[in-house]
Every structure is written in structure tokens, then in C-alpha cells.
UniProtKB/TrEMBL annotation:
The organism of origin for this protein: Natrinema altunense (strain JCM 12890 / CGMCC 1.3731 / AJ2)
Gene Ontology MF term list: L-seryl-tRNA(Sec) selenium transferase activity
Residues found modified as N6-(pyridoxal phosphate)lysine: K218
Keyword Cell inner membrane carried by entry: no
PANTHER family hit by this protein: L-SERYL-TRNA(SEC) SELENIUM TRANSFERASE
Protein name: Selenocysteine synthase
Keyword presence, Electron transport: no
InterPro entries: PyrdxlP-dep_Trfase, PyrdxlP-dep_Trfase_major, SelA-like
Length: 404
């Protein structure tokens, strides 16, 4: 492992990341070519609206959507998508948000699609109306949401339908977009972590989504504070008008026409609800370069490499007492993961103790801790160098064989 990182220089504990692309420990390892381009972007000036217009072209090419926009993360993309659905092309409404008096402001979501990230919809001013039940999780019934429940919730107060894309979410996106388009309601899809496969860049647009958001700081391996919105050009224009810096005198306000039709508007909108979600020229350029590399990358080869690394972990930990190892390599997750089930009666410590121990040592080691209720920790090879992988194996082995 590298000896002196910038975090060591700052006296901040560094992290060995065996948990995958998690925002709170730094997202992903940015592509070197993106870093290089960011350095060059930082030393010159550019009009951000021109750069966003170029980004729109690049994203349109990559996704098959009419237009696109770079945001400071997928969650920011959700906020801006909601703002576009609420305000449309009306500068008065743009100025009014997040106050929605007199504006249709409901975003309908299947209850099973609710996540902590949907706070972003409410931040724009929307009210989330969730439909369906949680029967399946509670074991009290077999279904979660029926298409008719979504349709029945649509009214003159509806601004959009929110949908979280996972390989197992239901109803199918195409079913939801069909209902939505019959009522002329846009569908906003959160597909933040659904890459790779590369085809997913275009899939949800093909299935009728009006706006789709992806994270730029996950598998695309762009700057951590980037995201992409792809979709309808009128909605992307609304996003641009609500996000770009708008302190411009009307006489000299000439935004790129491919992004914003300034002529059509009565005047320059004010700083919008998206203005706090600033995207710098460096991040914008870094994302575009990373996206290009992502499109060219051999994702099967990467998966093969992660698979071999996961097998190496399994082989190295096999002899440790009190744990049960499986390799989870289904199509649902981006990288194969090693699932370590800790038998609390036979192992030296519990799964929770293991996680706590590893996180408090130096460097901090983060393993996947989303399944502690099942006494499970996971090891994800995606964000590890070879040397770090060895370190993780050694630390887990040592923690689990230490006498209490
Ligand atoms: C990661 C994630 C987000 C947030 O993405 P950021 O780019 O960190 O803002 C939103 N929704 C889902 C489902 C995610 O997995």
C-alpha cells in the first residue's frame, strides 16, 4: 500500500475500502485520465453553460436521450428533476420553489421505492404520495404495489412519478411509463447505482422514462461529486435554468441555444433552487472524460478480475474457524462479493465487533456492514488495490483468530 497519502499528511485516518462505492468513505477510485483532465480544466476559464451544452450532447449520445446535464451527484439530479417537473418552463414557478402554492406538487412513488434519497424531491418542494403496501417485507401478503394503484393516485395535483430502478423493483418501469404517458405525467428514474452494464445508460430512456439519474462517482469512476441527468430536452432546459448562475444582465444574456432557448423567455430567471448545487468546471470535465472511459471499458474483464480477487479472499479465509464463506456473484450487484457469515458461538468475535474493530484501526478498514442483523459482513473487491486486498485478508484473519 502507498505509504504517505494526502490524508496521512493531514493527520486524517485513511481508509482501505472493502465495502464498494460508498459515498461516506469517498465513493470510488477516480480514473487517472479524469484527474489529469481536471487539472487542465482548473487552469483555464470556460462558460459553464457552454460546458453543460457540450455535456448534454455527450450524455445524449451515451444514453439515447434528447439531452443531458451534469449535476453534483445523483441525489442532486433527483432534486433538479423534481424542480423541472414542478416548474416546467415557467420562470415565475422557478422563482417560487420550494413554495408550491398553486402548483401541482405531488410526486407519486410506490411505497417499496421510498429511500432516504427521496428527501431530494421534497427539498425541491414536492410532496411524496406513496402508494401500495409493504406486505411482502412483513410477510403479510404477496404483493407490494399494483399498477392500478399508481394510476388511481394520479390527479390534477400530480407533478411526476418517482421510480427507483433495481433489477428487482416492480411494477416494471415500462408498465409505469405507459400509465404515466397516458396521463401526461413525467417519470423520474433513480438509477444511481445501476451501472454497469453499459446498456443501462440507454435502457430506462428506451423504456419510456422522462428523466433518469446516474451517479458519476460510482462505477463510472468520475469525480465523487458528480451525477448525470438524461432525458427530455424541455425538462433538461428547466434544470439548466434553475441550476446555472443567473446573475446576468438581460441585454447580454446569451446562453447556448442548444441548452436554453433564451429568446423564448420574457427575461432572465433568478438564481434558482438548484444554484446551491454548483458543479465546477473541473468536475464537469472530469465526469465527461470518465464517462468516455466507462463507455470504452471492458466490463466483463473487470468483473473477471474482481471474481478472481473474491476467490482469493475465500481461499485465504477458508481455514478460519467460526465463519462460513460464500461468493455472491449474481447479476444484481456490480462486483462479486464475499459473504462472510460469522457464527457468534464459534468465532472470536461477532460480525458487529469485527466491523467496529476494523474501522477503528489504522488505516481504517471498511467492510460491507449492511447485513449485521444476519451476522454477515461482506468484502467487495471493487475499490481495492492488490496490496490493500492482502491487508484486508490479513486483518480479518487476525481479528477473527485473536483470543478474546
Ligand atoms: C448512491 C445512490 C444515490 C445518490 O447518489 P450520489 O451520486 O451520491 O448523489 C441515490 N440513489 C440511489 C439508489 C443510490 O444508490
Amino acid at each position: 500500500m502507498s505509504d504517505q497519502t494526502v490524508y496521512d499528511e493531514l493527520g486524517v485516518p485513511r481508509v482501505v475500502n472493502a465495502a464498494g462505492t460508498k459515498t461516506r468513505i469517498g465513493g470510488s477510485r477516480i480514473r487517472p485520465e479524469a484527474v489529469e483532465a481536471m487539472g487542465r480544466a482548473a487552469t483555464e476559464f470556460v462558460r459553464l453553460s457552454d460546458l453543460q451544452a457540450k455535456a448534454s450532447e455527450v450524455i445524449a449520445d451515451a444514453t439515447g436521450a434528447e439531452a443531458g446535464y451534469v449535476t453534483c451527484g445523483a441525489d442532486a439530479g433527483l432534486l433538479l428533476a423534481a424542480a423541472a417537473a414542478l416548474a416546467g418552463d415557467d420562470p415565475g414557478r422557478m422563482d417560487q420553489l420550494p413554495d408550491t402554492d398553486g402548483i401541482p406538487d405531488e410526486i407519486i412513488m410506490p411505497r417499496t421505492h421510498r429511500t432516504g434519497y427521496d428527501h431530494a424531491f421534497r427539498t425541491a418542494g414536492a410532496t411524496i404520495v406513496d402508494v401500495g403496501t409493504n406486505d411482502r417485507v412483513l410477510g403479510t401478503g404477496s404483493t407490494a404495489v399494483e399498477p392500478w394503484e399508481i394510476e388511481a393516485a394520479i390527479s390534477e395535483r400530480t407533478a411526476a412519478i418517482g421510480y427507483v430502478q433495481k433489477p428487482y423493483t416492480e411494477p416494471a418501469l415500462s408498465t409505469v411509463t405507459e400509465i404515466a404517458s397516458a396521463h401526461d405525467v413525467p417519470v423520474i428514474v433513480d438509477a444511481a447505482a445501476e451501472l454497469p452494464p453499459t446498456e443501462n445508460l440507454s435502457r430506462f430512456i428506451e423504456e419510456g422514462a422522462d428523466l433518469v439519474v446516474f451517479s458519476g462517482g460510482k462505477a463510472i469512476r468520475g469525480p465523487q461529486t458528480t451525477g448525470i441527468v438524461a432525458g427530455r430536452s424541455d425538462l433538461i432546459e428547466s434544470i439548466a435554468l434553475q441550476q446555472l448562475d443567473m446573475h446576468a444582465a438581460e441585454e447580454v444574456w446569451q446562453p447556448p441555444t442548444s441548452l436554453v432557448d433564451g429568446e423564448r423567455l420574457d427575461g432572465v430567471p433568478r438564481q434558482g433552487i438548484g444554484r446551491p448545487l454548483k458543479v465546477g468546471k473541473e468536475e464537469l470535465v472530469g465526469l465527461l472524460v470518465a464517462l468516455e472511459s466507462f463507455l470504452e471499458a471492458d466490463h466483463d474483464a473487470a468483473r473477471g478480475r474482481w471474481r478472481r480477487e473474491a476467490e482469493r479472499v475465500t481461499a485465504a479465509l477458508e481455514s478460519v474457524e467460526g465463519i462460513d464463506l460464500t461468493l455472491d456473484d449474481d447479476d444484481v450487484s456490480v462486483a462479486p462479493e464475499v459473504v462472510v457469515h460469522v457464527d457468534t458461538t464459534a468465532a472470536a468475535c461477532s460480525a458487529t465487533q469485527l466491523v467496529r474493530t476494523l474501522r477503528t484501526e489504522s488505516p481504517r478498514v471498511f467492510v460491507g456492514a449492511d447485513r449485521l442483523d444476519e451476522d454477515v459482513v461482506t468484502i467487495n473487491p471493487m475499490c481495492l488495490t492488490e496490496a490493500e486486498l492482502d491487508h484486508v485478508i490479513a486483518r480479518i484473519r487476525s481479528s477473527l483468530t485473536a483470543t478474546q
